[in-house]
């Protein structure tokens, strides 16, 4: 792969500026950006990958990689790395609700029976490393500040800043992979609709360290939707966190820190954490979920991962979708270059395929979490799934993103139980 070309241009005041030129500029080197860059380079494009931070860097996350996410990461040549023993490897889910306990193996799918728990500091550094090894040119410590456009309005590149210097990068196509950053402004749209906080602990004493533990508590679900979690690594540490919808915050007039601290005091958690030692402070971040209402393509532009609202609205899982949407965006970047056509109508192909692949799961999950006033109302459903193995598996597939949540309609016995219990109460 040849390195992007560099040439001198003049800025609006006539000063000489250095500009680098590539086929594609990717803004943000998280999982979405690194995947876009990796796959685009593999397809033969010259790629510049910009990130305002320097790697390795932390990113608040539950660190859970669902089986489909692990599959995507394996496609980047990191399948063996996932197996390293200090990573968590899970084969099941333990879901604790107010009235039910759902114990379920990872449902059988094309993605295999395991998922992983890997600290994002390590995952993101590995993914960006793969993009660089493939031939992408990483510029870290470089913050993209605006899109450059021709007088006709076509995307021509990106203006950025680094150490107080203004930099220019030229390309006919830009992928926004800047997470919740929103650098592409009006060209691209995504909505923040949840917030989450996590902290690392050592010596958490809960059971079944090869399960993801998910707590649908009364506190987080009586006015909206949310859950807490304990995800174990393989080295004695655990990621403990809680996330709630922004609606929950508005309705309760409470903040995320408060929900997180209440979660740590839930009787079960307090017990598991009795002898645990925190490692570093708790950290929060926001989430853009559910695909709904987002705009992921425009002339010369595509958005992947969180920048395109690609987080699953039930699980809050976004790494796999960021990597997957990056892979698809890379294919469309290749297509656009082959046609020498970066129009919105060409790039709509990216959106169409992404919707075909993911809209059912994301939009139905989004509808569920938005139409049901609070998740507490679903307790009869959880209870019915506890007793019905097929319905339980389907519910968990709704969580892992392997089935749309309305697949539960295929379980009339469980739904009958829900109906009876609702009528009785
Ligand atoms: C607390 C919490 C728990 C979560 N738990 C999970 C989980 O267990 N599993 C899971 O799969 N997902 C989880 N998610 C979601 C997951 O973290 C995101 O979906 C994922 O990070 C998306 O990757 P991304 O590449 O789109 O964005 P990011 O990872 O946010 O990467 C964006 C990158 O862009 C860079 N950037 C931003 N603005 C600019 C700019 N102007 N110029 C240059 N660079 C810029 C940033 O520095 C960053 O490196 C969780 C989220 C939160 C908040």
Description:
- By secondary structure, the protein is of the alpha/beta class.
- The chain has 3 domains: 5-57 and 122-190 and 292-368, 3-Layer(bba) Sandwich (FAD/NAD(P)-binding domain), CATH 3.50.50; 85-118 and 193-284, D-Amino Acid Oxidase, Chain A, domain 2, CATH 3.30.9; 374-424, no CATH class.
- The chain is 35% helix and 27% strand.
- The protein has 13 helices and 21 strands.
- The strands form 4 sheets. It has a 7-stranded mixed beta sheet with strand order 8-7-16-17-18-15-19, with helices on both faces.
- Strand 20 and strand 21 (301-303) form a beta hairpin.
- The radius of gyration is 22 Å and the shape is globular.
Q: Could you list some keywords that capture this structure?
A:
binds flavin-adenine dinucleotide; 425 residues; alpha/beta; six-stranded mixed β-sheet; FAD/NAD(P)-binding domain; D-Amino Acid Oxidase, Chain A, domain 2; 13 helices
Beta-strand percentage? 25-35%
Q: Give the % helix.
A: 25-40%
Give the helix tally: 13
The span between the termini is 66 Å
Rg over CA atoms, rounded to whole Å, is 22 Å
What ligands are attached or bound here? flavin-adenine dinucleotide
Structural class: alpha/beta
Chart the SSEs and their pairings:
Blueprint: E1 5-10, E2 16-21, E3 24-27, H1 31-42, E4 47-51, E5 64-65, H2 67-75, H3 79-82, E6 88-90, E7 92-96, E8 101-105, E9 115-117, H4 120-134, E10 137-140, E11 143-149, E12 155-162, E13 165-170, E14 174-176, E15 192-202, E16 211-215, H5 218-221, E17 226-232, E18 237-245, H6 246-252, H7 256-264, H8 267-272, E19 277-288, E20 297-298, E21 301-303, H9 319-339, H10 344-371, H11 379-387, H12 389-400, H13 412-424
Parallel strand pairs: 2-13, 3-4, 3-14, 4-10, 7-16, 14-21
Antiparallel strand pairs: 1-2, 5-9, 6-9, 7-8, 11-12, 12-13, 15-18, 15-19, 16-17, 17-18, 20-21
Helix pairs in contact: 1-4, 1-9, 2-9, 9-10, 11-12, 11-13
Bound molecules: flavin-adenine dinucleotide.
